């Protein structure tokens, strides 16, 4: 009896079917871009530090002096002229600290003060006032009777007597009379150039200077500052 053999299947020459392709074990892995990730972390840290710094600065407050009501130049400060204000600490601002209130009361102002403004040392006269042995006299001066933009609180000046309008000048060789004074404050010039200067003088000269100032017979000469 003979044996029969089945023919061997011919090798496949066509393309593989989808079922013949091995299936992937999962989704394709994503590559992490580490440089970009690190940059994002640094930006987040910097933002957090900046916010913390702003919060810290906002919480750092100081007690300073502010103006409670309008105060004219040359005024001796009273306790009721000042109030305490709390502000954020700022190196660009230099107001007088509230702890110095007792030393500030009694000093004279060099300029007009407005309600609500912060008080600074530059708004006060040099030396802290005219003293109890001085009198304060306001002198209204026209152009030519006062150095233009050259006077400041604390300057020493001579209040020189000048002839009234229509009067002849003093005789040749005769020096005009003068009074020693210290500038307390200088007001702003008006449209005509007239300016008011507050002067501190000895108690023996106050009435004389006031009378001459009322008669428009005063001119100021600034003494050397050095």
Structure notes:
Residues 1-28 are annotated as: Disordered. The chain crosses the membrane at residues 34-55. This is Membrane protein. This protein is an alpha+beta fold and 226 residues long. Helices cover 17% and strands 22% of the residues. It has 3 helices and 7 strands; from the N terminus they run αββαββββαβ. It has helices at residues 34-59, 101-104, 206-214, and strands spanning 61-67, 82-88, 134-141, 156-161, 178-186, 195-202, 218-222. The strands form 2 sheets. The protein has a 5-stranded antiparallel sheet. The protein has a two-stranded antiparallel ribbon with strand order 1-2. The protein starts with 33 loop residues before the first helix and ends with a strand. The mean pLDDT is 80.
